[in-house]
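An instance follows:
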Amino acid sequence: MNTLRQLRILNTRPKNQAGPLSQQIMDAGGVSVECPTLEIVGLDNWLPLLPDLNTVDKIIFISPNAVIQCFSVLNHRNIPWPEHLIVIAIGQGTAKALAKFKVDVSEVPTIPDSEHVLALGSLQQIKNQTVLLFKGEGGRVLIEQVLLLKGAKVITLPVYKRSVPAFNSEFINSLWREDLVDIILITSEQSIQNLFIMFNEENHQWIQNKPCLVISERLAKAAALFGIKQTIISHPDTMITTLLDFSKGLNHGQ
């Protein structure tokens, strides 16, 4: 039977999102060490920019957080969501979040990133169309830039921001001092940045020498810029399988 053989995984997902992944890790025989490196803070200052949804041609959600924060505000203000809207989700996680709000998704790329969203058929001929983009504050602007070049009217609504969460310094110190993890799981560039903020500079070498599981080639390149020596790329839906393969490799190397 394939198991993670008590592989210790640093789960850096936000506090309110770490649970399902931690459960999957434990079900597979691993140990999830939760250390959130992101805090998601909802915003509502985008509401004045929200157009009449009936006049929008397409809507893109860039993350599950964008979905949750968008609908928490819309539902609180009793703003209805028209059924006919063409909705694009950046990935399956975002599509699942939309399903919880009973929103039908028209398209989801096979790989959850901006490049693959832009390759979708429905976004090729969009001149003079109005595209609404729900996302986090800051982050990549590739989707906006390309759609504007194609002649679309893009309305970008940052519905949340990311910040460094409050953390326990003693816990952080114990991670490197006692070498409590075998691999670090990272799902965003901001998480990498915050991880290096949360650890003292003299402990950065510990992070850099740990294998890191990331969810895209772009994220692997970002990790390398921070000095992380070994990255393993996995599709978000197959992270447990990737960890199982990593664990087998460790076992064979012993």
Q: What stands out?
A: The beta strands are 8-11, 31-34, 39-42, 58-61, 86-89, 130-136, 153-163, 183-185, 212-214, 231-233. The longest strand covers residues 153-163. The chain has two domains: 8-38+167-252, 41-162. The chain has a mean pLDDT of 94.
